[in-house]
Amino acid sequence: MKYFSDNEQGMPPRTLTEINVAIWNGIVLIINEFIANSSLAASFPERCYDSGEICGCDEAALGDGIKSIIPNLGMGLNRLTEPIVSPFGIDIEAQDINTYAVLDLVEYIHHNIKDVRQIGNYHTFFKHYHYCIDDRGANRKVFQEKINELFERNGLNYTLTDAGQIERVVPLPLNLIIHRVVNTKDPELNRLVSDAAGKIRLPKLEDRKLALDKLWDAFERSKTYFLEDGKVDKRKSVDRVLDNLSGNDANFRLLLNNECLTLTKIGNDFQIRHYEKGKIAIENSDEIDYLFYRMFSYINLFSKCID
């Protein structure tokens, strides 16, 4: 749903990477809604003492499931109080929120939501209805929409996909280019690029660093794309690659040659594929996005012009 301020000012930028108290409380509110409508009853059934039929969600079983699968969440499905800053600058009652664990929780809940259908009449003695499972994915879709609205309105840089996986919201130019399928005659090169495109969307910084590793592996493999009499001669292969990509335009070939030298130097100097002491660390998502976009632009040109 769009509100007045959205039309006037637009949505907030999706730059927030940590889940705060307000977002956590919103997630708890949404989950409690799906507990109340028995969408989680299939996985965590509470059964009628009289008939044995499902009559709702067993919240204790749900809590046990969450603790066993996401042990680092460190808290139950309870709303938190906003921390109060004392005159001495100390947060009173501040609680640490493990962002990755909370994102795991969202995926876990989505996975366990099922559609249910009310059966029979109201059980007046125990004051509940009975349900059967009639799963068509409708409740999972509603859960996804509510979670994504919460994330978007708070500028959180994540989204819940149709497959129930949390992905990072990548910048639009990068998102457009990584959706292009790289399809060369080298299956291993294609796989490396595909792996990189998948990992760059993941929430954890470590996964996105691995995306750079995969992409630079693909770059190095592209240098040996052409064989000379069935053997690898990197220098001759690179020359043929540059000839193909430049279309015999000398100025563009020089530009591409310089770009390849620069990309090679970046891979050697920074912590990409090499993690020896003295290599330059990559510290944040902006640096990763820049390097990924720069390399993927070259790989994209390579895939379109090489065959």
From TrEMBL:
Pfam families per record: AbiJ_NTD4
InterPro entries noted in UniProt: AbiJ_NTD4
Domain HEPN AbiJ-N-terminal: 3-169
Protein name: HEPN AbiJ-N-terminal domain-containing protein
Annotated source species: Segatella copri
